Automatic annotation (TrEMBL):
The lineage of its organism: Eukaryota, Fungi, Dikarya, Basidiomycota, Pucciniomycotina. Residues 6-179 form the Thiamine phosphate synthase/TenI domain. Transmembrane segments: none annotated. It comes from the Eukaryota. InterPro entries: Aldolase_TIM, Hyethyz_kinase, Ribokinase-like, ThiamineP_synth_sf, ThiamineP_synth_TenI, TMP_synthase. GO terms for biological process: thiamine biosynthetic process; thiamine diphosphate biosynthetic process. Pathway: Cofactor biosynthesis; thiamine diphosphate biosynthesis; thiamine phosphate from 4-amino-2-methyl-5-diphosphomethylpyrimidine and 4-methyl-5-(2-phosphoethyl)-thiazole: step 1/1; Cofactor biosynthesis; thiamine diphosphate biosynthesis; 4-methyl-5-(2-phosphoethyl)-thiazole from 5-(2-hydroxyethyl)-4-methylthiazole: step 1/1. One of its GO terms (cellular component) is cytoplasm. The keyword Magnesium applies. Its cofactor is Mg(2+). The keyword Hydrolase does not apply. One of its GO terms (molecular function) is hydroxyethylthiazole kinase activity. Keywords: ATP-binding, Kinase, Magnesium, Metal-binding, Nucleotide-binding, Thiamine biosynthesis, Transferase. This is Thiamine phosphate synthase/TenI domain-containing protein.
Amino acid sequence: MIDYSLYLVTSSDNLPPGATLESTVREAVRAGVKIVQLREKNLPTKLLLERARALREICQPPVKLIINDRVDVAIVSGADGVHLGQDDMPLAKAQEIGCGDSIFGISVNTVEEAVAAARAGATYLGVGTCWPTGTKSIPDHKIIGPRGVKAIRDELDRLGLSIPLVVIGGINSSNLLRTLYGCTSNQIYTDRNAESPIGVAVVSAIMSAPNPFLATSKLLQMIQEFKYWLRTLEEPLAHTDVVLDMELKVYMTQFFEKSSTPLIHHITNTVVQNDCANLTLAYGCSPIMSSNLSEMEDLVKLKDGCLVLNLGTFDNNQIRAMKLAGMHANLIGKPVIFDPVGVGASLERRKQANNILNAVQMTVIKGNQAEIAALARFHSSGATSCGVDSNGEVEDPDELVRKMARQELCIVVMTGKTDWISDGSCVFRLDNGVSQLSNITGSGCMTGTSIGCFTSITQSGYDKDSHSGLLLIAKDIQETFGGTLLATILGISTLNVAAEQITREEKGKSKVGPSTLEGLPELVHDNINLSGVS
């Protein structure tokens, strides 16, 4: 069986001073790499063959040696296989020339190319380009990101084409985890043995490293921890009415009795910054509103808390800040809440939302019906977006949020007359709230803040050193205060119940603030209208 987990692609141009191709590959293999591709585009045939024979000596079984493009060099050097691009020798011809048990990899960039290569009998697919890379000049439309890779994986799954995928293009230690999570197949929710992707290919992350052994070891550790996470996915909650009633009360008590003051970092709609800051304070958390690029890393690392991203009013600087802060939050296990405000209103909003979702693994995505439908490409449902408001009802809202949660591997909230929540396995509906909320500017944005505040304490006690390979997403923090699913339910319910209380007391449409949140813990628990959907 071929181990594609960490696939090394060579590049002599990337070697640091004093290093050689052979010494770097030797150290990578010693650290645990099980497959190496010799990719030296500019070498004459004689030198390429010499390099191939040298690497063949280093890459002893079970390590596989693959030659890029050159079937002849692969055969003469005794390599295990060849990797072909879309413009190289046709796969059928390479199979005719090569040995019967040779490995044949094919580079693909689209669903159509992937399906064709799988049906033609390729051994594995090299899918990309995932991220911008310094080793090639890649047109923007060829950089497909984790979500593009996932789309290819999911279509192959749908067609029943079982073939290993190796994701390639710009992968390094800073984006490896996002790559792995972002490419994970929807099938993991129905098939616990499903793997996605099979492997990641790296070039400069090892070839340019001063210490290739340590660089390889770090990457492999992150991959192994991700695989551990896949094996420990929780089954759907059983007896949700009983379990949730008990756990919600415990979580609510722990939140309002917390001893720390979590920092809630907002990169948000400028219209609602003041309201969201006051709501954060009302929850006993500390707000900060900043999109200054130079302080993103410092703010994210400052203390336990949460990052809230809101697409309401944005410019290029704010988009860069969202991606930068989100990537740093992922690396330290800090929850990230994303509100794709008005994402269906313009092509630019859809483009920027896609860019953000490619770069950052979200913990919770919250939107109205039109926004969630737009993200999930459920345009046929009849929901359209007018500015930042929702117009129309989606069909099968429970399946919409479940599908979206599986697509993005996070908790998804769809707000409206009825609020729908899913982590990809369970689906819950919330029937609290009042219709007047939809007429208050920023009420949806404040819901994102509320979710962020409750989610912030899921990070408390989280051992970042022993869980360095795990992102803080829906499934992997169940041991801490009940996890983000409970936090999300309470974040929404607290505002909804507060709105009901205000209405009962005939305070009109005043905004939820410190005074209206007083005494809410018991009120929320006693009045929450929650039901599970199978």
